[in-house]
Write a structure and sequence with these properties.
This protein is an alpha/beta fold. A five-stranded parallel β-sheet has the order 2-1-3-4-5, sandwiched between helices.
Amino acid sequence: MKTEPTPPAPVVLVIDDEVQIRRLLRLTLEGNGYRVYEATNGQEGLAEAAQRRPDAVVLDLGLPDLDGVKVLQRLREWSQVPVIVLSVRDREEDKIAALDQGADDYLTKPFGTGELLARLRVALRHAQPTADAAVFKSGPLEVDLVSRAVLVKGHPVKLTATEYSLLALFVRHAGKVLTHRQILREVWGPTYVEQTHYLRVYMTHLREKIETVPAEPELLITESGVGYRLMIK
């Protein structure tokens, strides 16, 4: 009886100048089945990313040569690899800047290794194309991007055109934090990026239609001061 070949371990590139953090991440990631490469500054990180073609990147913002946001910006010129920012910077402006430049997630130091591993799994799942990619399912929610059908607990849900555009954007980026500006630009256009009240109103309407308890959302989660995330369940 033929046995299936074991899939290769996912490769994670850690870009961080703190030796203790790199050691902790290597122990944690290798202990959970990942292969790990390291870089101690931004230039080295970009070179390693080009050479190793990792499945995910864990990126510090406070690097000695290039700011991490600049590294992210340059990386996004040629790669869509999932990037989780890991930084001591906990201001909303820093989180928004990193997410606006294409980070998939943001964790502040000190961090829990369990949470990092969970967010890494979500980022890798989101990055993997699936044969059934046109149909998204999370908990009671099902969205068919081809037929534009939305079901909750098997029942059709009627959405307005704007509500559907908003939900479809979250589906295409499921598991990833989207900033207020990103959402407003994609759904309403670049002249609306400051109109956050539009977004609050439509998020309320959308939650009323797809959440079991709209006041306690489990699908469309608020990332305080930053934006929203559609959870993958």
